[in-house]
Amino acid sequence: VGSEAINTDIITLTRFVTEEQAKHKEATGDFTILCHSLQFAFKSIAYYIRRATLINLTGLAGSANTTGDDQKKLDVIGNDLFISAMKGSGRVRLLVSEEEEEVITFDQYPHARYAVACDPIDGSSNLDAGVSVGTIFAIYKLAEGAKGTKEDLLKPGTEMVASGFTMYGASAQLVITMKGGAVNGFTLDTSFGEFILTHPNMRIPKKRAIYSVNEGNSLYWEEPVKEWVNSLKYPTEGGKPYSARYIGSMVADAYRTLLYGGIFAYPADKKSPKGKLRILYECAPMAMVFENAGGLAVDSNMRRMLEVVPEHIHDRSGIFMGSEQEVQKVIDFHKRHQ
Ligand code: AHM
Ligand code: MG
């Protein structure tokens, strides 16, 4: 290989965040440190997922989390790794995790300025089959004089300063975006132990004929949702029907949708009138990624997902997110029913 073929100017996540911070003269470096701890959580979770079948980490932990889901052993380990990384950063005051009923406060760091919401291992029902899962995170900056209680997190997604996810698939892919910024994708190079910028400025295609939804719930769907999905499957005037793709791990379905275009939906329905996915650590952070990549995200009332305010930390919502034109179709079907 000629030396010109080797990239010697590799952009790691740490370098990327450092360069971003340099653009803001008021920056203190706290966010860079927080990102460093986030990365460590992703790397260690990736490591245990990869080794799970070998070191007896498949199966249930024998407990259920706050929302009644059975916890997998890896749910517990992922949660512990994430909490410990956030605590260790010394920059996080508050942490909400899908696996913890109450908000966690790190009182040893009363001056820490960030609040984080996370789903440490989303899609964990897929774990034992070796299917991709992921970690989702949302980062909020506490207001000056904030009390450091859960009320500081019951805010609309528009208040987030950064969000993203890591998908543990054939490789670990980290997608991160900051308020008003671009979406950037990094791949974990396991030999370097570094996330490397491989997908700069990700833009979602404006449209694509792929839909991703658990159609097994269609019995419970509201009319507009039924009509919308039927229109994709039975197009008029000889159009081609859409392809269906549903992994059942939102992070993996979202990552594909971001790259290829299309739409991912988990609508509220007659059985789950508030939807299934949680606002703070599933819907809102994903919505920020999709919007910043040029897509759209709305709830089941066709409100902008980022403006939905959770009533409590584990509050749920319906969600439709993806390519602008695909989400617009859903909105149009709902308008006809008003
Ligand atoms: P989890 O947080 O308990 O893993 O649940 C969230 C997951 C999402 O990743 C996925 O999109 C959805 O639940 C799948 O739900 P269903 O099995 O109802 O289709
Ligand atoms: Mg989840």
UniProtKB/TrEMBL annotation:
EC number: 3.1.3.11
Primary enzyme class: hydrolase
UniProt keywords, alphabetically: Carbohydrate metabolism, Hydrolase, Magnesium, Metal-binding
Gene3D superfamilies: 3.40.190.80, Fructose-1,6-Bisphosphatase, subunit A, domain 1 (3.30.540.10)
Annotated SUPFAM superfamilies: Carbohydrate phosphatase
Cellular component per GO, a single term: cytosol
Domain Fructose-1-6-bisphosphatase class 1 C-terminal: 204-334
Biological processes annotated in GO: fructose 1,6-bisphosphate metabolic process; fructose 6-phosphate metabolic process; fructose metabolic process; gluconeogenesis; sucrose biosynthetic process
Catalytic activity: beta-D-fructose 1,6-bisphosphate + H2O = beta-D-fructose 6-phosphate + phosphate
GO MF term (any one): metal ion binding
Signal peptide: none
NCBIfam families named among the record's database cross-references: PRK09293.1-1 (NF006778)
PANTHER family (UniProt xref): FRUCTOSE-1,6-BISPHOSPHATASE-RELATED, FRUCTOSE-BISPHOSPHATASE
Protein name as annotated: Fructose-1,6-bisphosphatase
